[in-house]
Write a structure and sequence with these properties.
heterodimer, A: alpha+beta, 5-stranded mixed beta sheet, 3-stranded antiparallel beta sheet, 21 helices, globular, B: mainly alpha, 0% strand
Chain lengths: 583, 318
């Protein structure tokens, strides 16, 4: 890394303004001049020594009092070298524009659109710079700017809602895609003399049974063949990142449950780990075991849900009910663990909320005894079925290079033969202490991704049973009174604990000034939290890197040339959850 | 006079039992799926939940009967009727037991084929009249699927017709007194059954109404009892498919000890259960796969079957 920094400084003496190396968290930040961002990014991508081929996220921050008000942060990852780097560029309010890096990483297309949508920064050279999460006609400005009130500016009250009962019934329904919008969704908007005489625009969603949530995709069709697919996101946008800026660190945990509501624990874990990295807290060993174990239970749960949904989409409805049978058993265990079944909330900063009881361990062991056979059972209905093979083999193929270029992660990336798993690359929890494998596909088609997820369920079961065997006794939450509320019993007896408790719950704890990015392998892919702390009890900026959002960026690329029936397979194969995608 | 009352009685019995059975079939399907999917299915209303269909019917009759303003009203309204009428008309030629048939036509097989071709119109114009893109795509698929499988269906049942030497369904049943046609005509049976599944839009051939991709296909815009008619029509065609399979290949009412009607019913129920089991076990084909499967697999098999059957019959006749 040191040599890379020297090369950068030598090669771009005016471009690179300064380099921060955070040795404690092993994070490198390079401040670059806004005008040179494209050159430096291209160098980092192309240079074999650097080879930052994966764009993790693009984030923006607003510092109203600074002369150069906006900061755009590029989070890059080098898969061959297993290194991360951050590029930062500052721009002024008068001319908030930057060169687009979409020509280097195609995955940047959605990310830059999000930055434009939320912060109003323009990217010159971006192919399709429109709002992405907010509606196209949103008139209130850019919500993540610091001068934007959290409650909005009243635009919501002017919505046209569903016609009221006392209004006359609708007699004429207009075409759902207006003339002005049509050009956005067409592949060649201006060529009226193309070989196709007439194209059909099909609006799929937001109310469609198999889009896995409220998302709309406008398909340009040639017969049943897809010419262009344009995802339209944001129907479930709740502004979690803006809300988080007004909440104390502990209060954000329940909001993360609602991101990927199928795998709430995985979000808790990702967020809690990011805060711990910011605070530099070490978690007790027993808590680490419990966390890993619960995260893997959550992975099984998420994959079971995905398998059921994908099979149902393709018409195999029995698999759906069978997976829900096992899901039920797991959900009952979660209910015993934390009292909830959907919005699970169990992880705490520095540990977990409650201990694993012996009954729960027995329950889990019983479940693990039969679970591998159940997985074989699903496999027997699908993996040898010729219809299933015909529907999934060679469908939605994406090559390894493309998948990396689009910033994909998780099973979707591994299906294309790229063995990138955060749990192996940057082990956390106790993943380095247990024995497990990363299943990797070959063809990058839907079948490989199916196989990987089924295999991951088996691996998760392996991890869980090893964790259960190795779990040591001990505390389940770290003892750092200035950050972690002390146990209730102690609060009632000890004056100092009472003071800490009071301070944490009335004001929130104050982390050191700084910033950090922390990635976690969620069932859907790499779920990352980027936190900027200004030393106050609330995060200055919290950016969520949601895998679903980034995967949908490759939707058009993967859907072109396939049939309408394959669209639902593609939706299924990403395993998108719109709560996470739209945030 | 006696003839008249006999026919009227038969019509009443067959019509009544068909509609009741179609209704019951919805409940049977849901219960059987429940068994295979390890859940209950409807079990509240009546013994074992068997009155569920009645409740559904009351519900569906009291639903708002909405006709979309953009639809072609006349055609839109006629379509559901065509579905049910064509399915019921076919039952006129089905011999349930000796002399227990409404119209013992000497071209019964052709009448059945004609009616199932007419049923295809309902799907096509229903999708067209809805003026909705999803319905339109559903009916486009249906046109291709029904027209192709119509051909295979006709060809694959010809073997049974050749063996019996008659288009009359009662004659075909009587010709199977000693040996069911499924043995010499196994390929014909397979082809007919698959084509029948496609005609009835059942899994794995339920593309025209693939709910996951086309919402509900050609009947997306239908609601209330019009939707109910499509629904009943689908179950009627399952009944019809099972009945025709039993008649053409499984010896109709023939069987030892039990009365003919019971045998017919038992065999039919076996096929109904098989159709439901297929739905529980298999995913759905993709549309192009379905067509290439039809033209490249079913069609050649049916033709070879027809050719060999014809050859053998001619050789024996000598």
């Amino acid at each position: 890394m040191q040599s890379l920094i020297e090369t950068l400084l030598k090669k771009f003496p005016e471009g690179v303004l300064s380099v921060d190396v955070d040795t404690a968290r092993s994070e490198v930040t390079v401040h670059v001049a806004a005008s040179r961002i494209l050159e430096i990014a291209r160098f980092l991508h192309d240079d074999p020594e650097a080879c930052f081929d994966h764009i993790t996220d693009i984030c923006s921050a607003d510092y109203p009092s600074d002369q150069q008000r906006f900061e755009v942060i590029y989070l890059l990852l080098s898969l061959p070298h297993g290194k991360r780097i951050r590029l930062k560029a500052r721009i002024t309010e008068d001319n908030p524009s930057l060169d687009s890096v979409t020509s280097i990483w195609r995955g940047a297309e959605f990310l830059e659109r999000e930055v434009y949508d939320m912060m109003g920064i323009r990217f010159t050279g971006h192919p399709d710079l429109r709002r992405i999460l907010l509606p196209e006609d949103y008139a209130e400005g850019y919500p993540l700017r610091k001068d934007f009130p959290t409650e909005g500016r009243g635009w919501r009250s002017q919505f046209d809602f569903i016609p009221r009962l006392d209004e006359p019934p609708v007699e004429q329904i207009e075409s759902e895609v207006s003339e002005a919008d049509r050009k956005v969704f067409l592949l060649e908007p201006n060529s009226s003399s193309s070989t196709r005489r007439e194209e059909l625009l099909l609006n799929m969603g937001p109310q469609h049974p198999s889009t896995h949530g409220v998302v709309r995709v406008v398909l340009e069709l040639d017969g049943e063949r897809i010419v262009k697919a344009t995802p339209d996101l944001g129907y479930l946008h709740r502004g979690v990142e803006k809300l988080a800026e007004g909440l104390a660190y502990m209060q954000i945990i329940p909001h993360t449950d609602r991101l990927d509501y199928v795998c709430a624990m995985a979000n808790n874990y990702a967020y809690v780990r990011a805060v711990e990295k910011l605070l530099d807290i070490t978690v007790p060993e027993r808590a680490e075991y419990i966390r890993t174990l619960v995260a893997e239970m959550q992975r099984i749960l998420g994959h079971l849900f995905w398998l059921g949904a994908q099979a149902l989409d393709i018409g195999a409805m029995t698999v759906f009910f069978w997976t829900f049978r096992e899901r039920e058993t797991l959900l009952d265990m979660f209910e015993r663990l934390c009292g909830a079944r959907l919005t699970l909330n169990y992880y705490r900063i520095g540990g977990v909320d409650s201990d694993f009881t012996p009954e729960l361990v027995t329950c889990l062991k019983e479940f693990l005894e039969t679970f591998p056979q159940k997985v074989d059972e699903y496999d027997s209905l699908l993996a040898s079925n010729r219809i299933w093979l015909g529907r999934t083999k060679h469908i939605a193929v994406i090559s390894g290079e493309d998948a990396i270029n689009f910033g994909m992660t998780g099973p979707t990336l591994r299906g294309s033969g790229v063995s990138y798993d955060v749990r192996k690359l940057e082990p956390y929890g106790v993943y380095h202490k247990v024995d497990w494998d990363v299943p990797v596909g070959k063809n990058g088609d839907t079948y490989d991704r199916y196989w990987i997820r089924v295999e991951e369920m088996r691996q998760s079961a392996r991890i869980i049973s090893q964790c259960l065997d190795q779990m040591p006794p001990g505390p389940i939450i770290a003892d750092i009174p200035q950050y972690i509320p002390p146990p209730k019993l102690q609060v009632m007896r000890d004056m100092e604990s009472l003071i800490h408790h009071f301070v944490i719950f009335t004001q929130g704890f104050k982390p050191p000034k700084g910033e950090t990015y922390c990635a976690t392998e969620a069932p859907k892919g790499e779920l990352g939290f980027f936190i900027i702390s200004d030393g106050s009890p609330r995060p200055y900026r919290l950016k969520i890197r949601s895998p679903s959002f980034i995967h949908l960026g490759a939707f058009d690329h993967m859907a072109r040339g396939y049939l309408i029936s394959d669209i639902i397979t593609i939706f299924g194969t990403y395993d998108v959850v719109m709560g996470e995608c739209d945030r | 006079m006696i003839d008249w009352s006999h026919t009227a009685l038969t019509i009443a019995v067959i019509l009544g039992s068909c509609l009741t059975l179609a209704g019951m079939l919805i409940w049977v399907e849901r219960r059987l799926l429940g068994v295979w999917q390890e859940r209950y299915g409807p079990n509240r209303l009546g013994p074992g939940g068997c009155l569920q269909s009645l409740a559904d019917m009351i519900k569906i009759f009291t639903k708002e009967d909405w006709i979309p303003p953009f639809a072609d009203k006349a055609v839109f309204v006629i379509t559901p009727a065509i579905v049910v009428i064509t399915a019921l008309m076919s039952f006129a030629v089905i011999p349930i037991a000796p002399n227990f048939v409404v119209a013992d036509l000497n071209v019964g097989v052709l009448f059945f084929l004609a009616m199932s071709s007419l049923a295809a119109y309902s799907v096509i114009i229903g999708g067209w009249a809805s003026n909705n893109k999803f319905a339109f795509l559903g009916s486009l698929r249906a046109i291709a699927q029904l027209l192709s499988y119509e051909v295979f269906m006709g060809i694959s049942l010809m073997g049974a017709v050749i063996l019996a030497g008659s288009f009359n369904l009662s004659d075909i049943v009587n010709a199977q007194q000693h040996q069911w046609f499924v043995i010499p005509q196994f390929l014909g049976f397979l082809g007919f059954f698959m084509a029948g599944l496609a005609e009835a839009h059942r899994t794995p051939f339920d593309m025209p109404e693939a709910e996951a991709e086309l919402v509900a296909g050609y009947h997306s815009e239908y609601s209330g009892m019009k939707f109910g008619m499509f629904f009943v029509g689908e179950y009627l065609s399952i009944l019809l498919l099972s009945a025709m399979t039993v008649i053409l290949f499984f010896g109709g009412w023939h069987g030892p000890w039990l009365p003919p009607v019971v045998w017919f019913g038992l065999k039919m129920f076996g096929f109904i259960a098989l159709i439901i089991l297929i739905r529980a076990a298999w995913p759905r084909f993709r549309f192009d796969q379905l067509l290439s499967f039809g033209w490249k697999v079913v069609m050649p098999l049916a033709l070879i079957n027809l050719l060999v059957t014809g050859g053998v019959v001619l050789w024996r006749a000598g």
